[in-house]
Structure formats: structure tokens, C-alpha cells
Design a protein that fits this description.
- The chain is α+β, with helices and mostly antiparallel strands.
- The protein contains 2 helices and 5 strands; from the N terminus they run H-E-E-E-E-E-H.
- About 35% of the residues lie in helices and about 30% in strands.
- Strand 2 and strand 3 form a beta hairpin.
- Helix 1 crosses helix 2.
- It is globular.
Length: about 100
């Protein structure tokens, strides 16, 4: 998938984005266009996406964050293109797991 496609899809999905720190671990929080809040973290080659819900509006209380191994085991930072790509993969996985539970 090209970074241009990722950028357009990311911009259509994410309403707000705040970088929480400038060092490892890479952490962001924000709000999706559908109103859910999220928290993203990347450390030791693992990315996680926690989403708020009606039961747990604070994404830090997400009982089952979506996790993806990406990069090397010592990695703790992604370039913006890789960040968007990983974020979108995690978002799609989290939506798939929600629709599987509802089926």
C-alpha cells in the first residue's frame, strides 16, 4: 500500500492527533472521526491501539488493545509514513474483532 493512500485514509479516519512524547516509546492519543478516542503506543517492535467505548470512554481502560508486531524487537519509534500504515492496520484489526463479536 502506498504511503499516499495511507495518508488519505488516515486523514479521513483521524479527527485529532496529539503526540505524547518525542522519545521512545512512541505514543499518540486522539479522536477518530466516529467520535471514539484512542491511544497508540509503539515500543520494542510492538504497536498497540486502545480504543474508548461507551463502557470505557478512556482508551487506557481498553481491556483488549489490538497489538501488532512490526519492525525489529528493539524498535521504539516509527517515521510518520510507517506510523500511519501501522495505525490503519491496527484500526482495521480492531474493527474486525468487534464485528466478529457481533456476528
Amino acid at each position: 500500500m502506498s504511503s499516499h493512500v495511507d495518508e488519505a485514509e488516515f486523514n479521513a479516519s483521524v479527527k485529532t492527533l496529539t503526540q505524547l512524547n518525542v522519545a521512545c516509546p512512541m505514543e499518540y492519543e486522539g479522536e477518530l472521526e466516529d467520535g471514539r478516542v484512542f491511544r497508540f503506543s509503539y515500543r520494542w517492535g510492538f504497536a498497540s491501539l486502545s480504543l474508548g467505548s461507551p463502557e470505557h470512554p478512556d482508551p487506557r481502560l481498553d481491556p483488549k488493545p489490538t497489538i501488532l508486531a512490526y519492525g525489529q524487537d528493539q524498535d521504539g519509534w516509527l517515521g510518520m509514513s510507517d506510523f500511519r500504515h501501522v495505525f490503519l492496520r491496527l484500526l482495521k484489526r480492531s474493527q474486525e474483532s468487534v464485528s466478529e463479536k457481533g456476528a
